[in-house]
Design brief:
Blueprint: H1 4-14, H2 17-27, H3 44-56, E1 60-65, H4 73-93, E2 98-101, H5 112-125, E3 130-133, H6 141-153, E4 159-164, H7 170-180, E5 184-187, H8 202-219, E6 224-226, H9 230-242, E7 251-255, H10 260-268, E8 273-279, H11 284-291, H12 295-308
Parallel strand pairs: 1-2, 1-8, 2-3, 3-4, 4-5, 5-6, 6-7, 7-8
Helix pairs in contact: 1-11, 4-5, 5-6, 7-8, 8-9
Length: 309
Amino acid sequence: MFDKAAKAFFHLLARSEGVKTLVSQYGMRKPSSFARRFIAGETVEEAIAAARGVEAQGLLQTLDYLGESITSMAEADAATLDYLRVIDAVKQSGVIRNLSLKLTQLGLSVDRATAVDNMRRILDAADGFFVRIDMENSPYTDITLEVFETLWALKYRHVGVVLQSDLYRTDEDIKRINQLGARIRLVKGAYKEPRTVAYQRKADVDAAYLRQMQVLLTEGHYPAIATHDPHMITATKRFSSERGIAADRFEFQMLYGIRRDLQLSLTRDGYRVRIYIPFGRQWFPYFMRRLGERPANVSFVVRGLLSEV
């Protein structure tokens, strides 16, 4: 795994308009383009096609229309309308009804009430769906959980949230969300966080993840164990087996295009595996975060760029 300096480097690139222009020029140009390894495409039709391919392999899926950190009410309203169109397309397609989204995409950084209203519009339209609120970097943790609790108090029960193991606060946040009876996706955390709020050593993040995974399996409500780390997966399988926790009481989650061999292996072993399928024109920041997580991702992209130009 990359060290924190490399992770910081890719977060810096994610904010570079020059790099964005270069990568965007080639990343989605044709079906074989390098970015399509990790991103289904720019349209909902491409995302649905990818979802069908995933489901045909016996895997579950969730669709994520990429976008974050909008700066105006108009952008927030446009993103909400886009999600309503995605919901309609999913209903017509017959694929699994599961969505993931970010609150800053719906206006959280502009106005909290607007984000809540936009989430309600989406949840009201998403009949028969499960909608997961993705967690963003640590300045948004408190307000994201507050919005989630507001929605829960309004009796929305087809909504869940994501928590990040690298943050010191996550043990307490798990207790907080478990008490509601809500569903949690546990991730290690893809953002560069300061040492004042987050573990900096991989060993510490791993220890936190294992500890929190065990709490979720024993006290949680259909948790999602989201990881590509074979050690974390083996530990989850061992712990659930030792405690007699049935495979249908939780699921593994993985990213589209990463460790496909492991995804299929887990499915063959009888575990539920859900694939996070991102799509949309605002794919560049997500793409940079994926590069910052694994060296193999970078070499794959470099080869792709050389073949494209």
